[in-house]
């Protein structure tokens, strides 16, 4: 199974980063399939044109992924 991870935080100024998310999501992905790719954004979830979100959706559309965890 090809598993992708998507991690996102709004901004670094709120004291948040994606590392905690990635640690837990990588563990889950490795237990449930082969980790295929990691996508991360440090942008508002309200933006439709997030840097890594659009490429993630494209890979889903192209059926390159079996599962996305976030």
UniProtKB/TrEMBL annotation:
One Pfam entry name: Resolvase
TM annotation in the entry: none
Domain Resolvase/invertase-type recombinase catalytic residues, every copy: 2-70
InterPro entries documented for this protein: Resolv_N (IPR006119), Resolvase-like_N_sf (IPR036162), SSR_resolvase (IPR050639)
Gene Ontology terms, MF aspect: DNA binding; DNA strand exchange activity
SUPFAM superfamilies: Resolvase-like (SSF53041)
PROSITE patterns per record: RECOMBINASES_3
Family annotation (PANTHER family): DNA RECOMBINASE-RELATED, DNA-INVERTASE FROM LAMBDOID PROPHAGE
Name listed for the protein in its UniProt record: Resolvase/invertase-type recombinase catalytic domain-containing protein
Organism: Hymenobacter coccineus
């Amino acid at each position: 199974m090809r598993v992708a991870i998507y991690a996102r935080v709004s901004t670094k100024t709120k004291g948040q980063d994606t590392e905690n998310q990635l640690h837990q999501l990588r563990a889950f992905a490795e237990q449930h399939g082969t980790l295929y790719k990691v996508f991360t954004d440090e942008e508002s979830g309200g933006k439709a044109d997030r840097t890594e979100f659009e490429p993630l959706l494209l890979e889903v559309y192209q059926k390159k992924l079996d599962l996305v965890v976030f």
